[in-house]
Amino acid sequence: MKRILVIDDETWLREMVHMALEQKGFEVLEAENGAAGIEAARQVLPDLILCDVNMEKVDGYLTLSSLRSEPATASVPFILMTGLADHAGMRHGMELGADDYLPKPFSIEALYAAVDARLKKVQTVREEAEKKLADLRDNISLMLPHELRTPLNGILAYGEILSAEAATLPPEEVAEMGQVIHESGRRLERLIENFLIYAQIELLGSEPQKLSALRKKRTEAPAGLIERHARAQAHQANRDHDLVLDLHDLPVAISEEYLAKIVDEVVQNAFKFSDQATPVSVSLAEVSGSVALIVGDRGRGFSTEHITKVGAYMQFDRKLHEQQGIGLGLSIAKRLTELHGGTLSINSHRDSSTVVTIKLPRAL
Fold first, then answer.
1. Per-residue model confidence as pLDDT tens digits over 295-347
2. Contact 75, 41 (CB under 8 A)
3. Which of 26, 33, 156, 345 has its CA 20 to 30 A from that of 58?
4. 329 in the same domain as 279
5. Could you read off the pLDDT of 160-192 as tens digits, one per residue?
6. Domain assignment of residue 278, yes or no
């Protein structure tokens, strides 16, 4: 049974709403003013709150602001009831986080419609969140064992052979095994590094002072840095000749460390998801007052659905395409871009091409 809290200083209106909602099968709680409503909401965590705007001392706006500032009640659907539904007041309520307005006087049908609409929206959002959680769980359970075991198998197997038979092995085989161990170790290192970086940038986003300091960083001459890291990714993919560069030096408002990370992740993806002997282009130019890093390839591309789902631990069509990684790379690039006041967008055609555009503020 859904629980609804009604906050209003007019007894007759609370009782009327109470009776109407009970007839629809809801459990209804009442509070005679904003202060009492805040306390009741904290204690019972209702599924929906109906609150009058004009109340003495603690009005509807203060009630809404207080509940939105507390994690436990921040997401509870909140409908403001008012007889003064002017545009300025409605805008103020929406800015504070109100979900809807119910102008007084209202009919029972209007009350039912507003309540049903809010509860249905909450249910839809919850179902979408549960689906995303299920997708995330499936992706993690599918990819983590593979990503951890594959390099570990190489390290353990060749390490055991070297420790037991090193004296009898020819030097070229020892060197080959050492190379496999080294590459496997680098793969594990990158996996751990991405876990740590993702956790770090999520913490940065929740601390205003650190975020402000972050946005004061700058890279004066990004072209050289971008070229070095793009060429390193091309070399690692054995595709040095596929890299096409068009870089214009423009000071950008991001640290060299984080700019390098964005370049590494996006360029590596471009090589990973495109074929040998097809170009991967990397350009840096000014676009509409921002500095745009644009990376394009002629690989298998993303579907529109996949573009909207880009996020941590998300990989697409993994059952169809063998690939390394846990889906953190593009998410890290996106979050770093957003934390610096920029945007990351993807324009992709399935089985044809992908262009990733990262727009960052130009350093002043």
1. 999 986 655 444 444 444 444 444 433 444 435 778 889 889 998 999 999 88
2. no
3. 26
4. yes
5. 999 888 888 999 999 999 999 998 888 888 777
6. yes
Of residues 45, 38, 37, 35, the one with CA closest to residue 14: 37
85 and 190, same domain (yes or no): no
CATH number at residue 75: 3.40.50.2300
pLDDT of residue 302: 57
Same-domain pairing of 282 and 353 = yes
Ramachandran class of 57: left when φ > 0, alpha when ψ lies in -120 to 50, beta otherwise: left
pTM of the model: 0.53
* Residue finishing a domain among 184, 207, 230: 207
Give the chain's end-to-end CA distance (angstroms, integer).
57
Contact 218, 253 (CB under 8 A): yes
Residue 132: its pLDDT value, please? 65
CA angle 290, 297, 303 (to 5 degrees): 90
Residue 113 placed within a domain:
no
Give yes or no: residues 239 and 343 share one domain: yes
pLDDT value of residue 322: 43
Domain final residue pick, 163, 190, 207: 207
Instruction: Measure the CA angle with vertex 132, ends 129 and 135; round to 5°.
Output: 155
| Domain interval for residue 23 | 3-106
Per DSSP, 252 falls in state B
Q: What percent of the chain has pLDDT over 90?
A: 49
Residue 337 lies in a domain: yes
* Total domains, the chain: 3
Alpha helices (H) in the chain, listed in sequence order:
11-23, 34-44, 60-68, 87-96, 108-165, 171-205, 208-214, 222-236, 256-272, 304-308, 328-339
Query: What would the two tokens of residue 245 be?
Result: 């560069």
